[in-house]
Each structure stands twice: as C-alpha cells, then as structure tokens.
Design a protein that fits this description.
With about 230 residues, the protein is of the alpha+beta class. It is built from eight helices and five strands. A five-stranded antiparallel beta sheet has the order 1-2-3-4-5. The N terminus is likely disordered.
Length: about 230
C-alpha cells in the first residue's frame, strides 16, 4: 500500500474545501441549507433511483467506501486508474450539472449553449481529477458517519469525520438535494469552509477579469497538472 503521511493527506483533503467562510452568505440556495438546523433523523429515502443514492446517508457512505478502496490501492492503480475508478462514483454521487451552474452564478446565463457544454465537461473532469490526485495514499484513515439532518428547501446535511491515525480529524458537512429520485451532493464544507464558495469566488473573478477562454484554459491546465504530477 502507498502510505501517505497523515499531515500530507490532511492538507490535500483540506484543499477540497478551502474558502473564506464569509462567502457563504453569497451562495443563495446552499447557504440556507447549512444554516438551517433540523433536529430530525434525516430526510426520507427516495422512492426510486440507485440504491447507492437512495438516501443522503447512502450517498455519502458509498462515496466514502469508494474513496477508502481507492486510497488503499492508490499505488497499484496509479493516477489514471484512480480516475477511472472514481469517475462513475463522482458522477453518481455529485450533481455536477447543478454544481456547474451554481459555481458560475449569474454568469451562467450569459454563456451560450456551446460555452455551457464546454464548461460542464471541464468542470466534471476537474472534479474527478481532484479526487484522483488528492486521495493518493492510505495510512489507516477511516470515515466516521456522524448523522444527518433535514435542511431548508428539502435539502439534507450529512456530517462525517475523517479519522486519521495521527489523531487529527477532518470534519465534512455534505449538502445534498434530491433529483430524479437520487440524493446528490451540491456542496462540501470541510472544517467549516465551503468548496463551492471557493470555486465560485475564483471562477467568477477570473471570468470578470479575463473572460471565458481564460477560465477554460485555467481549468484544463489544472487537470493536466494533476495528471502530470502522478
């Protein structure tokens, strides 16, 4: 097994959700979901859809089991193998089309259909590449399920903790909504900071300053960098 030092892995995981907490009120749909505190046991399971995503808890447990499996086989699989293994998992557990629109905010409406398609393709590839690059080793980590609660707008928040052998834990709050009978992730808040907020701040700033071609070029460069580094 490829054993990455806990501090190194923790840093890479934190990069999935590094953002300014003050940006959260700008997120419209997602921020209220994090602020609302339901005290129930969670949203009811969907009536249809894959068993992997039939409830908020099922979605997160499936994602975590897949990540641990890939981490344990990281060296054997290599970056390309991890990408292939995680691609169907990420596509099934994340609402990537919805996330792409949320990330660009009002800028999404200003793009033509070709630009939207190209951005969504790049966004999907980058999301999968990020997981494949950063979950690249195993040193005894495990995910602990801490419970779920209902949130505003029919959304659900699932909390879990990555327990590391070195004793330093990472807390994940997953925001999910139900679409086509499946519960899918629409934001991840890591130790109190939001992945969606980070992307929205970065991408909209780049769009405003340099335009759509520069944004797409930046995303493709980041994807290539992940592959080249592994």
């Amino acid at each position: 097994m490829n054993r990455a030092p806990p501090t190194r892995l923790r840093g890479r995981i934190r990069e999935l959700g590094v953002a300014l907490v003050l940006l959260l009120p700008c997120l419209g749909v997602v921020a209220p979901a994090m602020a609302a505190a339901g005290s129930g046991s969670g949203a009811a399971p969907a009536a249809s859809g894959s068993a992997h995503t039939a409830s908020p808890a099922a979605t997160i447990k499936y994602l975590h089991a897949s990540l641990i499996d890939v981490m344990k086989r990281a060296k054997e699989l290599g970056y390309d193998g991890r990408y292939r293994k995680l691609k169907p998992v990420i596509e099934q557990t994340h609402d990537l089309a919805y996330l792409a629109r949320l990330t660009l905010g009002s800028h999404w409406d200003k793009l033509d259909s070709d630009q939207r398609s190209r951005f969504l393709t790049a966004f999907r590839q980058l999301t999968i590449a990020t997981y494949a690059a950063r979950f690249d080793g195993y040193s005894g980590e495990k995910f602990r399920f801490d419970g779920s609660r209902q949130a505003a707008g029919g959304q659900s928040v699932v909390r879990s903790t990555l327990v590391q052998s070195g004793g330093s834990n990472v807390t994940f709050d997953y925001v999910l909504h139900r679409t086509d009978g499946q519960w899918k992730i629409i934001n991840i808040v890591v130790n109190g900071v939001s992945d969606l907020a980070m992307k929205r701040a970065q991408y909209t700033d780049l769009l405003q300053r340099k335009g759509f071609p520069a944004l797409l070029k930046t995303i493709h460069k980041r994807i290539a960098g992940y592959g080249g580094a592994h």
